[in-house]
Write a structure and sequence with these properties.
Elements (H helix, E strand, L loop, with lengths): L18 H7 L11 H13 L3 H13 L2 H22 L7 H18 L13 H9 L1 H11 L16 H30 L7 E5 L4 H11 L8 E5 L9 H14 L7 E3 L6 E3 L7 H16 L10 H7 L6 H7 L1 H11 L13 E6 L2 E6 L14 H13 L4 H15 L9 H9 L6 H7 L1 E3 L7 H11 L3 H12 L15 E4 L9 E3 L4 E4 L5 H12 L9
Parallel strand pairs: 1-2, 7-8, 8-10
Antiparallel strand pairs: 3-4, 5-6, 9-10
Helix pairs in contact: 1-3, 2-5, 3-5, 4-5, 4-6, 6-7, 11-16, 12-17, 13-14, 20-21
C-alpha cells in the first residue's frame, strides 16, 4: 500500500512488512540517528499506522515478549523521532502526520510494556518535547482538547501516556471549566425564562460548629448542582469566597471526617495512612460525602491533605490489587502472611483455617474467606490461596460497603473521560499534590508589586528568613499565604504567587489574600523583625474574617 495512514499524501510504494519484522526494525538502536528518520522511521511508523487490528495485536505481543532492552530501544527511537520533528516544526493544529504516526506506534509500545513481565516505568513514555510545547503555549492544549472531543481525529489527549501529570491536570481543568461554564449558562437562562432564581454556583452555607451536618444536608439537597463552580460561606463571617474560603472548608471538613472520634477510618501504626473502618457504624452517606468532597476538590482545583494508602487510588482507577498492595499498605499484616508462605515445616502446625477473626466493640467476629472456610485447614498446598484470599478480604470484601459509597460520591463529580487520563500514581498526585516543597522554585516564580522587586532589601530578607525555617513552619506559611500547605501537581513554581509592599510600619504583621496567593508584606528592615513578625502571623491560620 502507498498511503500515509491518516489520509495524508502517498509516501511511495513500500513492501508489506510483518509484525515481527517491524518489531525488530523499530527496536534497532542505530535508527536513533537523525539521518535515518525520514528514510526509514517515518515510513515504518506509517506502516504501523495502517496495520489491521490483528496485526497490531501481533506487534504488541512481539514487543511484550521481547527483552526489556529491545523495548527500551524502540521507545527511545520513537521519542527521538518526535523530539526532532517537534523542534524543527513545532506542534501544529492538527498534529503533523509523521508525529501522529510515531505517537501511535509509541502507544503500541506502551500497551506492550503494560503486558510485559519486564515493563518499563510509565514515565519512560512521556515525551519532553511535546510537554515543553504544551507548557509554553496553552492554546495548543486547548486545541488538542477540542480535537479529543471529536470522533476519528488524532489528539494527544487520546494518547495520554506521552503527557506529564501537569499537562493531564490542565486537560482535566479544561474539561471542568467547560462543564462549569455549561452549568453556569444553564442556570442563567433558566432564571431568565422561568423568572425564578437559579444560582450559577454550588453555594454551601455552613456553620463551623456543625460543619459535617451542614455539608451532608446541603450536598444531598444539591446533588444535581455538583458540577457548578463551588462557593463556600461560613455563616456569621465576612469572608468572600474567591478561592481561599473553600480551601479552608476542605481542610476543616476532611480533618473532621478523618478524626478517630468519627470512627470512619483507622490508621495503620506503621505507615500512618488511613483505611476504611470495616466496623464503622456510620451510614453510607458519610462515606459518600468523603468521595464527593474529594471529587469537588479535584473539580475546583483544590489540593487536599488526605493520607490514603496507594491501593485506594488503584481501586478508584479500577486497577487489580493483590498481596503486593497489601504489603505496601499494611506491612505488619503482610509480614505475618509472608511468614506463612515461608514456613519451613508443615503449615498445619500453625493451626490456621480459611477464616479470619477480629474484635468488634468487645465481641469476636469470624469471617470465612471461602465457603465453610472455618472447617478448611491451611496447608503447604493451599497456603498461597489462603494469603491471596486474605488480601482480597482486607482490600475488597471487608470494606465493600464503605468503598462503594465513597466511590459513588467521587464518581458523581469526577466520573468522565478526563479523569481516565490519569494512572493511579498520578491520581494520588492530583488529589494530594506534589510532595516536593521546592521553595527555591517558588522564589523564582514570584511576582512583586507596589514598589517591591526581587532585589529589594526587604524581599531579600524575606527569602533569607523563609528558606531558614523548619519544614513544619514552611507548611504553616503556605497555609497562611495560599490557604493550603499542599503543593500543586506541577510544583510550587507553578503557583501565581505575588508579594506586595504593605507600608513601612514594622509593628504591622504580614497579611494575605489566600484566594489570590497574595502576600502583603510590610517593609521590615532587619532579619530579626522579619522572622518575629512572620512567625506571629502564621501561628493562627484558621478563619478568613481578618483577610
Amino acid at each position: 500500500r502507498d498511503t500515509g495512514g491518516r489520509g495524508g499524501e502517498p509516501m511511495g510504494a513500500v513492501a508489506p512488512v510483518g509484525p515481527r519484522a517491524l518489531a525488530i526494525l523499530l527496536s534497532c538502536p542505530a535508527l536513533v540517528e537523525p539521518q535515518h528518520h525520514e528514510t526509514i522511521l517515518a515510513k515504518a511508523y506509517s506502516l504501523v499506522e495502517i496495520l489491521g487490528s490483528d496485526e497490531r495485536a501481533a506487534l504488541v505481543a512481539e514487543w511484550a515478549q521481547a527483552p526489556q532492552a529491545q523495548l527500551r530501544h524502540a521507545v527511545r527511537c520513537a521519542h527521538e523521532f518526535i523530539i526532532i520533528a517537534v523542534l524543527e516544526n513545532s506542534l501544529s493544529d492538527p498534529i503533523d502526520e509523521p508525529v501522529a504516526n510515531a505517537v501511535g506506534a509509541l502507544g503500541l509500545l506502551y500497551a506492550a510494556s503494560e503486558g510485559s513481565a519486564h515493563a518499563l516505568e510509565f514515565s519512560a513514555f512521556t515525551n519532553d518535547a511535546i510537554n515543553a510545547e504544551l507548557a509554553a503555549d496553552e492554546t495548543l492544549l486547548r486545541q488538542d482538547h477540542r480535537r479529543w472531543q471529536q470522533a476519528n481525529v488524532f489528539s494527544l489527549c487520546a494518547h495520554a501516556f506521552v503527557l506529564e501529570p501537569a499537562a493531564k491536570a490542565s486537560v482535566l481543568k479544561l474539561s471542568s471549566m467547560d462543564q462549569m461554564s455549561s452549568e453556569f449558562e444553564g442556570a442563567f437562562f433558566r432564571s431568565m425564562f422561568t423568572r425564578s432564581m437559579h444560582s450559577p454556583f454550588l453555594l454551601l452555607r455552613v456553620r463551623r460548629d456543625h460543619l459535617i451536618r451542614d455539608s451532608l444536608h446541603q450536598l444531598a439537597a444539591r446533588a444535581a448542582e455538583l458540577k457548578k463552580p463551588l462557593k463556600v460561606h461560613f455563616i456569621g463571617e465576612e469572608g468572600v469566597d474567591e478561592g481561599g474560603v473553600q480551601k479552608e472548608f476542605f481542610h476543616l471538613v476532611v480533618r473532621q471526617l478523618f478524626d478517630p472520634v468519627w470512627g470512619m477510618f483507622i490508621q495503620d501504626d506503621t505507615t500512618r495512612e488511613f483505611w476504611f473502618n470495616q466496623n464503622s457504624f456510620e451510614s453510607n452517606r458519610e462515606f459518600e460525602l468523603i468521595g464527593t468532597l474529594i471529587g469537588l476538590a479535584i473539580y475546583n482545583s483544590v489540593i487536599l491533605d488526605v493520607r490514603f494508602p496507594h491501593v485506594v487510588y488503584k481501586k478508584l482507577t479500577r486497577r487489580p490489587c493483590g498481596f503486593a498492595d497489601l504489603a505496601r499498605a499494611f506491612p505488619a499484616l503482610a509480614h505475618g502472611l509472608q511468614q506463612v508462605l515461608e514456613h519451613a515445616g508443615d503449615v498445619r502446625e500453625l493451626c490456621l483455617t480459611f477464616a479470619v477473626s477480629h474484635e468488634v466493640y468487645g465481641e469476636r467476629k469470624v469471617v470465612e474467606l471461602i465457603p465453610n472456610g472455618a472447617e478448611v485447614e491451611v496447608t503447604n498446598d493451599n497456603c498461597r490461596e489462603y494469603v491471596d484470599k486474605y488480601a482480597e478480604h482486607v482490600l475488597h470484601t471487608s470494606i465493600a460497603r464503605q468503598f462503594q459509597a465513597f466511590n459513588t460520591g467521587f464518581s458523581a463529580v469526577c466520573g468522565g473521560p478526563a479523569l481516565e487520563l490519569f494512572r493511579w500514581e498520578e491520581l494520588e498526585l492530583l488529589i494530594c499534590g506534589n510532595p516536593n516543597l521546592d521553595f527555591e522554585a517558588l522564589q523564582r516564580a514570584t511576582v512583586y508589586d507596589d514598589g517591591f522587586s526581587a532585589v529589594h532589601p526587604t524581599i531579600e530578607l524575606f527569602w533569607e528568613v523563609l528558606h531558614g525555617l523548619e519544614i513544619e513552619l514552611k507548611r504553616r506559611f503556605l497555609i497562611f499565604s495560599t490557604g493550603s500547605d499542599r503543593v500543586p501537581i506541577n510544583g510550587l513554581g507553578s503557583l501565581q504567587f505575588v508579594i506586595s509592599r504593605h507600608g513601612s510600619d514594622e509593628s504591622r504583621l504580614p497579611s494575605a489574600h489566600t484566594c489570590f496567593n497574595h502576600l502583603l508584606l510590610p517593609e521590615y528592615k532587619t532579619a530579626e523583625v522579619m522572622r518575629k513578625q512572620l512567625l506571629m502571623a502564621i501561628q493562627d491560620t484558621e478563619g478568613f474574617h481578618i483577610v
